[in-house]
Fold this protein.
Amino acid sequence: MENKQIIGLFVHNHPGVLLRVTSLISRRGFNIDSLTVSPAGLDGYSRMTIRINGNDDQVEQFINQMMKIVDVKKAEIMPENSSVASELILIKISTDGHDNNEILDVTSAYHASLVNLGEHSMTFRASGTPEAIDTLVSELEHYGILEMARTGIAALETGDKCLK
Amino acid sequence: MKLNGSEIIAECLLEQGVDTVFGYPGGAVLNIYDALYKYSDKITHILSSHEQGAAHAADGYARTTGKCGVVIATSGPGATNLVTGIATAYMDSVPLIAITGNVSNDLLARDSFQEVDICGITMPITKHNFIVKNVADLANVIRKAFKIAMSGRKGPVLIDIPKDVTGAVYDFEPLKPESIKNPLLSEKADFNKVAEIIAQSKRPMIYMGGGVISSDSEKELLELAEKLDCPVATSIMGLGGFPASHRLFMGTIGMHGGYETGKATDNCDLIITVGARFSDRVAGDREKFGKNAKIIQLDIDKAEINKNVKIDASLIGDLKDTLRTLTETIEKANHSEWTAQVSEWGKNGEVKETPPSDDYAHPYHVIEAVRALTKDSDIIVTDVGQHQMWVSQKYRFEQPRTWCTSGGLGTMGYGLGAAIGSAVAHPDRRVVLFTGDGSFHMNLNELATVRSYNLPITVIVLNNTVLGMVRQWQKLFYGRRFSQTDPKRQTDFAKLAESFGIKGLRIHNDNDAESVLAEAFSSTEPVVIDCRISPDENVLPMIPPGKTVDEMITEME
């Protein structure tokens, strides 16, 4: 069954490691829609969080292939029911022809904060699950999205388990 | 002790037990070659005609010895000339260390003369690669590279070293290499599960591949096959991993495999896959491969499980230990009815040869005549194409590491380099290269190397004057439109050999094959034999791409 899975990678922070991972994704034809890299909290290591679209076999193959990269120390699924996943968005909305208060009503429902008010635009910052951010974006589409930037997903497993 | 980077390279090679390297000098590796001059009593350097030849030679050396091959090339074109050789080794899981020079650190990233990002270029065709920008890291990078190349599923590793690093002086401390032991990842329960599936099987077969050879597990495989009384098919890469004279040996499996392996694959109820990867040349139709069978896979590489074909149960880890434990776990079985059925199929599969002719020899006849003259330990190398398939079908391999062929990448031009590497590794054995006129034209420049080192290589050019394999596909699938497969070359391979200082002979037809081969085999001098075969000769049987044995072609015009 086709679904979206979040995979966490614990990698050596060597030059080229991002290229090794992305080049493998591309040549093996994996379908991903988000990839983030950040320090892992341990000197010399980084953490990558990747969301992949695929069936269980493809996800298993993805993890097995990733584990063949020498710089990848660990690759694991972040299970949906025992992980927290979050991302941040900055989004600029056109205010032309709209009531600012109406926009603020929508955004406050998503705990989006107004970070800048332009002559013809409002810029919001929001964070939440990728699904919540998707919903916020679709609600704001109606007002006219001038531009937006999303950080991609960060995910950790809940409980005491750590990926390292 | 204080050494410069190049001396550190030489010391690290010695540490790893390397006494032979292949390569070609150039500007960015001048320091390294200066060190090789100094270490020439400990490290033999074989100079090729072209870096590609050196890479294939290091590959042939590795395949026939089980050791890690080493190739050295300069920056830029020297490095890019290695690419096909590295990719060939990668596809066939051959351990190889490629050392390339690069421009000095202060010239990197400036499009300097002969600068190329070889790490970027070789990322998809190496297990791992390194650029060493600091001499302090050099020794440990080389040690790590050997460990990566030789552990788990083996493969090539490239080390790119800027010129200033090869000249910089640093403290070198010798270090004994740690022994490599691949773990057995499967547990008792996994073995029990597999043993249970095996116990239920009435018609099992083994499909083995190159993993058996690279893990030196041929003895363990033989024990499993005999205890289970189970016929064995091999991929092209697995040839030599199971003795062809054994009653359980069926031959190769796949596109040009025999009728009996095809029938067995379709009619068995269990396929035990050992160190093989279900390539499209074996499992043409991934969904229908072994359609009546459960499939068990034993491999060191977990990523091979469920990659091409859906597996029912798998055992992961060192193949030798896995096979040994599995054989201990299973009960002794007798499948005489099934093995008799398989042998019966074997009788049906004879392929009709082209009629006798004064103008042409028959490839099978020549291959069998060669086999009559060779010892089991002699090494057979091929290029890629029809001749490669004929040899894989007909030559009876008895021992592992006596066979070099580019199975995965299918590299035309691989053979002569690989033959050189094999001959350098085994000066006491005869090396026979079967090649085609197409493949041989690609890298015949290495005849110069054969002469320089006086290597006992017998080159047999199965010369049909056309690009036979492609032409065969044009016959079958492209309405006999022979686009660019009849190059009308006038090359006289015997005369060509003479110009390199190598003896040239000719086989005109089946009648003179034995005497010419006997002449060639009477000395250890290198020789090239131009052997004329018909352009209409085909490789049969053939399962068309994406199909099963049901659609096997056994006859063509």
